[in-house]
């Protein structure tokens, strides 16, 4: 198979799973992390969000990758200061579930600042959970066009890679959805690197892909069964009307 572009080839379904996995990882992780430099996806955040009005059913999995709140879909760079979509996104983010020990459906979302012009063609990441409070994952799936999970995903010490056929240029991009619960008490789910990498990664549509790592300060956590979760934010957020300061203060109070 000839890889004319490294961002994400569409593998032949007849290929062995191990070969297909290597092709996808080559598209998302084409450059070693030590060689990564600032690309269009720099400063991206990874944020968890839920809507407890959405009740998981096995019959509805096809819909979980669809929009659940307004996104900044404008391709104008940078966004105009009066653009209302940021307030909509920030007001909608809910990093914990109030469903107790029942199943919660939640999403992993990439968020970029208003002065960014993201071009997300792929992302790789793993998850961790509170060690003494095991999370039971009922179901999960990508919001992109293709996925190749590592062994035992989504358990600890595993990971997955998601790619898009068309580079995503929105300021908020759904990457993945989960359905999970914690029976034994408050538990947090956090983010880590795909096995073999040093951090979660965003890949653009260059050839080879430019990789932007997601540092710890840019990674959110999700709370189950009483845990509060955490929403990261930039140290010096741009001023967009009055919503930025209030939202930033609210998030900082919950850290």
List keywords for this structure.
4-stranded antiparallel sheet, 255 residues, disordered N terminus, alpha+beta, Immunoglobulin-like, 7-stranded antiparallel sheet
How many domains, in number, for the residues?
1
Proportion of β residues? 25-35%
* Count of DSSP H/I helices: 3
CATH class division? Mainly Beta
- How many runs of DSSP E, i.e. beta strands? 11
Mean pLDDT: 78
Low-confidence stretches: 1-24, 28-36, 236-255
Query: Rg to the nearest angstrom?
Result: 18 Å
Question: What's the CATH architecture name?
Answer: Sandwich
Helix content: 10-25%
Task: Tell me the structural class.
Answer: alpha+beta
Q: Please outline the major beta sheet.
A: 7 strands, antiparallel
- Might you state the CATH topology name? Immunoglobulin-like
Q: Give the overall shape.
A: globular
Report the order of strands and helices.
HEHEEEEEEEEEEH
Distance between the termini: 48 Å
Can you walk through the features of this model?
The protein has 255 residues and is of the alpha+beta class. The chain has one domain: Immunoglobulin-like (Sandwich). The chain has three helices and eleven strands; from the N terminus they run αβαββββββββββα. The protein has helices at residues 17-28, 85-92, 243-253; strands at residues 45-50, 104-111, 120-129, 136-142, 146-149, 160-168, 172-181, 187-192, 201-203, 211-213, 222-224. Strands 3, 5, 6, 8, 9, 10 and 11 form a seven-stranded antiparallel β-sheet that branches. A four-stranded antiparallel β-sheet has the order 1-2-7-4, with no helix packed on it. The radius of gyration is 18 Å and the shape is globular. It starts with 16 loop residues before the first helix and ends with a helix. Mean pLDDT is 78; it is low at 1-24, 28-36 and 236-255.
């Amino acid at each position: 198979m000839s890889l004319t572009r490294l961002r994400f080839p569409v593998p032949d379904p007849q290929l062995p799973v191990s070969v297909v996995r290597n092709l996808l990882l080559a598209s998302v992780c084409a450059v070693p992390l030590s060689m990564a430099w600032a690309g269009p996806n720099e400063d991206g955040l990874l944020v968890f969000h839920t809507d407890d009005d959405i009740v998981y059913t096995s019959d509805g999995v096809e819909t979980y990758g669809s929009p659940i709140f307004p996104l900044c879909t404008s391709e104008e760079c940078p966004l105009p200061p009066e653009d209302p979509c940021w307030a909509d996104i920030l007001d909608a983010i809910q990093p914990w579930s109030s469903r107790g020990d029942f199943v919660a459906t939640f999403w992993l979302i990439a968020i970029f600042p208003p002065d960014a012009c993201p071009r997300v063609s792929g992302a790789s990441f793993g998850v961790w959970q509170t060690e003494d409070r095991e999370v039971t994952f009922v179901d999960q799936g990508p919001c992109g066009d293709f996925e190749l999970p590592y062994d035992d995903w989504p358990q600890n010490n595993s990971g997955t890679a998601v790619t898009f056929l068309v580079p995503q240029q929105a300021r908020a991009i759904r990457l993945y959805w989960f359905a999970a619960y914690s029976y034994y008490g408050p538990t947090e789910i956090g983010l880590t690197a795909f096995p073999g990498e040093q951090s979660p990664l965003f890949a653009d549509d260059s050839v080879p892909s430019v990789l932007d790592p997601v540092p710890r300060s840019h990674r959110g956590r999700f709370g189950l069964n009483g845990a509060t979760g955490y929403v990261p934010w930039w140290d010096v957020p741009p001023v967009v009307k009055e919503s930025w300061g209030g939202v930033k203060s609210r998030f900082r109070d919950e850290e």
